[in-house]
Each structure stands twice: as structure tokens, then as C-alpha cells.
Design brief:
- The protein is built from 24 helices and two strands.
- It has helices at residues 20-29, 31-46, 50-56, 58-65, 79-105, 108-127, 132-160, 166-191, 199-205, 208-218, 225-230, 235-246, 252-266, 271-274, 281-295, 299-312, 317-345, 347-372, 381-399, 402-413, 419-448, 451-470, 484-488, 492-513, and strands at residues 4-7, 16-19.
- α6 packs antiparallel against α9, α17 packs antiparallel against α18 (347-372) and α17 runs parallel beside α19 (381-399).
- Belongs to the major facilitator superfamily. Sugar transporter (TC 2.A.1.1) family.
Length: 514
């Protein structure tokens, strides 16, 4: 018998419970986020380890040790070093485009399984790397795994979750990213102390551990009802699965909406072409704007290069890694808070409050660095810790806003007929700008210096204004009914209105034929 939290039926919501079956399935699927987070955290840590730099990037190590005239901001400026970090995201971009077709035609579960298998191979190559080419090949395979995971996991979570708890469950993906990042920072802190100088091998190879858990777990994951009906399974099978995951036999309303969405989806031959239609313009804009804004918050300044950044302001190797642990812990805690409140406060409140918090902290950090850190000088220990606190404030703002919501909102706004295509565009956009930030950040840090924080702070202002005016609230709406918010929005209703009238006529014809 399913046990869980009862869900009242209000405002068009379906009957059901938060069942233990759903909770355990989503916990296992969310391990895909651990892969992503671990890899983000591990790369920044190993690139600050002297033994790793001496073996693969001796030019960077030489600049740190011998070149006393080089600017503090330019010590790590190496295109080969940034290629190590960014190659994963370029591979993830390409993989996400193929993942869309696989996720649609074979289901969410096979995509999750494939991501785990490829990630294991990539982790093994990275840990055993003998030269920089082997190292980057391992990163490319990790990127393929992350590309498939980021395509399938957010969709899986949003489709399995009851509408009242969809925000909390989907935010579990970003929470898992935080767990992966914090775990990576803890492992880096420990392996950096290994006297043989091979600690970085352990750090890179350990990525295979969460990937193994995900791969084994994927064999036991159920497929989502949305995917089952989209791939032509019988209505009886879908009905049985709905009853199992909702913990109630009264699932007729949700099943009817799934059937309706499936019939519309079957009439679409090319979802990528279809998403360009005027009626899907709001979703297309959000599929591009939200992941773009998520990256230009500047979070990857912290996520990729936190230890590098802390070494820039004068902390030692070990202290820099420990500081990265602190920021990772802050991000994890605040993402958990977001899980608890997102379905009560809504998406817009968290976006706007988090944006204001990030902007203020970035401006103060930039101002302090501009005033205190010269090209060859150092920041006093007291100011270093003040900067660490301010960076933690910034990470907290991201942790309960753009971090989890940047994945949640795109995964819940697409109707079934364009859902895989829309998620693919979201993931691809995310990888494009993650790659650009990863590849250019160290050069930007060298040229902009403290101004890098003002650069990202300006973008935070833009995205906060964008959310305030153009993003409607989607909390507590069933996933197959979210599209109604665009028809009621002050701006988007003028964009989608004409196409909607024709679509409503088609839906009415379909309903009358049932």
C-alpha cells in the first residue's frame, strides 16, 4: 500500500498522495544531479593542486611559483587549462541534442541509464590519465553523460511529482547537484594532502561512484506515465502506473489530460519545428533566457574556480579548498530551504529575492577587491574571511533562487508535444553558456580583475527585471495545465492569443469525439 502525504484537489489539481514509491524513484533519478555537481566541484579543486598542474599544466605552475611580476588575476590564465574544464560542457551540448530524441522515443529511464554508463567510463579515463589528451577525452565522456542526465532527470522528476510538490521534488535535482559539489570539495580537501602527489587521480576517479549508483538504480526505475502514453502504451498500463505512483484509484482526471496531451503530441511530426510556432513563443523564450541568465549570474566563477579564486585573494592551497567546502555547504543548505518553500512562496518571489541578494553581495565583493587587492599585493587575512562571508551570501542567494529554479521552471512549462524538444533547447543553451563562461572566465579575470563581479552583477539586475515583468507564476498547477498561465499574462496573452483560438477548436473537436 502506498503511503505518503495527502494532496487535496483544488484549483484543477489531481487526486493523489506523495507516495513512498515516488519519493524513492525521484531520489534515485536525482543522482544524475550528483554527477553534474561532483564534476563541477572536482574540476575547480584539482586545477588548484600543484601536483596536478605540474604534470599537465607546467606553464601555469611556473607562473605561480616563479613569475613574481605577473598580476594576481592572471596566474591561472591558460587556454589549455580552461579547455580541461570547458571540454565537458561542449560535449554535453552536443550530447543533449541527441538525448532529446532518445528521451522521447525510448523514454526517460534509458537516457538516465545511458548517462550513468558513459560517466563511469569517463571517470576511469580521468583517474588513469597519463597525458593531457587522455585527461580531456575523459572529460568529454563525462560531458556526454551529463548531457543525457540533464536532459532526462528534470523531466522525470517533474512528470513523476504530484503538482503540489513538483517544485520541491524538481528542486531535488539542484539539491543533488549541491551534494555532488560539496562531496567533491571534501574529497579534494583530503586528496590534496596525499604526499605522493596522486591525490588528483582519486578525485577524478571517484566520479564513478555516484555514476555506478545511478546506473544500478536506473534498472529499477519506473517509466513516467507521460512517457508511457507518449510512446503508445495502452491506457490500462498508464492507468495502473498512475494509481501506483499517486496512491489512489481516482486518477481518471489526470489520465484524461495525459490522453489529450498525447493525441496532440502525435499530430506533431517535428517538435523542434513546432516549437517555433507563435503559440509556443513564451516557452521558447524561457527555454533560452532562463538557462542563459542562470549562467551569467556568475555562479560558475564560484563553482568551477572557487579554490583558484580564493588563492588569487591570498589564501593558501589547503585554505582555498576548505573555503570551497564552506561555499558548497551554504549552497546545499539554501537549496534545501528552497525545496521546502518553493511550492508555498512560488517561483517568482524566490527569483526576485535571490536576485537582489546576489546583486548586493557581488557589488560589495567587487568593490572590496578593487580597493584592496592590487596586481602583486595580497589581501589581509581578516579581509579574506570577510570576502569569503560575502561570497557565501551570494551563493545562498543563488541556492534558493536561480540554482534550483533554473532547472525547475523550464521542465514544467512545456506541453507534452514539445517537452523533449524544449528541454533539449534548455540544456543545450545551458551548456553553450556554461562552456563560454568556463572557457573565458580566467581570461576575463585577468583583464577585468575585480570588475568581473560588477559584470555579473549587472546581468543579475537584468534577469531580475525580466522575471518581474515576463515570468508568470506556475506553482501548484498540474504539469499538463501550466500552459494556461501564458493566456492570462499581461504580455504573453497578446503573443499566443491567435494560435490558441485555433488550438482550442482542435481540442474541442477531439473531446467531442471521445
Amino acid at each position: 500500500m502506498a503511503v505518503g502525504i495527502g494532496i487535496e484537489s483544488e484549483g484543477g489539481q489531481y487526486n493523489g498522495k506523495m507516495t513512498s514509491f515516488v519519493v524513492f524513484s525521484c531520489m534515485m533519478a536525482a543522482m544524475g544531479g550528483v554527477l553534474f555537481g561532483y564534476d563541477i566541484g572536482i574540476s575547480g579543486g584539482v586545477t588548484s593542486m600543484e601536483s596536478f598542474l605540474k604534470k599537465f599544466f607546467p606553464e601555469v605552475d611556473r607562473k605561480m611559483e616563479e613569475d613574481k611580476d605577473i598580476s594576481n588575476y592572471c596566474k591561472f590564465d591558460s587556454q589549455l587549462l580552461t579547455s580541461f574544464t570547458s571540454s565537458l560542457y561542449l560535449a554535453g551540448l552536443v550530447a543533449s541534442l541527441f538525448a532529446s530524441s532518445m528521451t522521447k522515443s525510448l523514454g526517460r529511464r534509458p537516457s538516465i541509464l545511458f548517462s550513468g554508463l558513459v560517466f563511469i567510463v569517463g571517470a576511469a579515463l580521468g583517474g588513469a590519465a597519463m597525458n593531457v589528451y587522455m585527461l580531456i577525452l575523459g572529460r568529454v565522456l563525462l560531458g556526454v553523460g551529463v548531457g543525457f542526465a540533464n536532459q532526462a532527470v528534470p523531466l522525470y522528476l517533474s512528470e513523476m511529482a504530484p503538482s503540489n510538490y513538483r517544485g520541491a521534488i524538481n528542486n531535488g535535482f539542484q539539491f543533488s547537484v549541491g551534494i555532488g559539489g560539496l562531496t567533491a570539495n571534501l574529497i579534494n580537501f583530503g586528496t590534496q594532502k596525499i604526499k605522493s602527489g596522486n591525490g588528483w587521480r582519486i578525485s577524478l576517479a571517484m566520479a564513478g561512484f555516484p555514476a555506478s549508483i545511478l546506473t544500478l538504480g536506473a534498472f529499477f526505475l519506473p517509466e513516467t506515465p507521460n512517457s508511457l502514453i507518449q510512446r503508445g502504451n495502452s491506457h490500462q498500463l498508464v492507468d495502473e502506473m498512475l494509481q501506483r505512483i499517486r496512491g489512489t484509484p481516482n486518477v481518471q482526471s489526470e489520465l484524461a489530460d495525459l490522453i489529450k496531451a498525447s493525441e496532440i503530441a502525435k499530430s506533431i511530426d517535428n517538435p523542434f519545428k513546432n516549437i517555433m510556432r507563435r503559440k509556443y513563443r513564451p516557452q521558447l523564450v524561457m527555454a533560452i533566457a532562463i538557462p542563459f541568465f542562470q549562467q551569467v549570474t556568475g555562479i560558475n566563477v564560484i563553482a568551477f574556480y572557487a579554490p583558484v579564486l580564493f588563492r588569487t585573494i591570498g589564501l593558501g592551497e589547503s585554505a582555498s579548498l576548505f573555503s570551497a567546502i564552506m561555499t558548497g555547504a551554504v549552497g546545499l543548505v539554501t537549496t534545501f530551504i528552497s525545496m521546502l518553500v518553493v511550492d508555498k512562496l512560488g517561483r517568482r518571489v524566490l527569483f526576485i529575492a535571490g536576485g537582489l541578494q546576489m546583486f548586493v553581495s557581488q557589488v560589495i565583493v567587487g568593490g572590496l577587491l578593487a580597493a584592496l587587492l592590487g596586481d602583486q599585493g595580497t589581501v589581509s587575512k581578516g579581509y579574506s574571511y570577510l570576502l569569503l562571508v560575502l561570497i557565501c551570501v551570494y551563493v545562498a542567494g543563488f541556492g534558493w533562487s536561480w540554482g534550483p529554479l533554473g532547472w525547475l521552471v523550464p521542465s514544467e512549462i512545456f506541453p507534452l508535444e514539445i517537452r523533449s524538444a524544449g528541454q533539449s533547447i534548455t540544456v543545450a543553451t545551458n551548456f553553450v553558456f556554461t562552456f563560454i563562461i568556463a572557457q573565458t572566465f580566467l581570461a576575463m579575470l585577468c583583464h577585468l580583475k575585480a570588475g568581473i563581479f560588477f559584470f555579473f552583477g549587472g546581468w543579475v539586475v537584468v534577469m531580475t527585471v525580466f522575471v518581474y515583468y515576463f515570468l508568470p507564476e506556475t506553482k501548484n498547477l498540474p504539469i499538463e495545465k501550466v500552459e494556461r498561465v501564458w493566456r492570462e499574462h499581461w504580455f504573453w496573452k497578446r503573443v499566443v492569443g491567435e494560435d490558441d483560438e485555433e488550438e482550442e477548436r482542435k481540442v474541442g473537436d477531439f473531446q467531442s469525439s471521445l
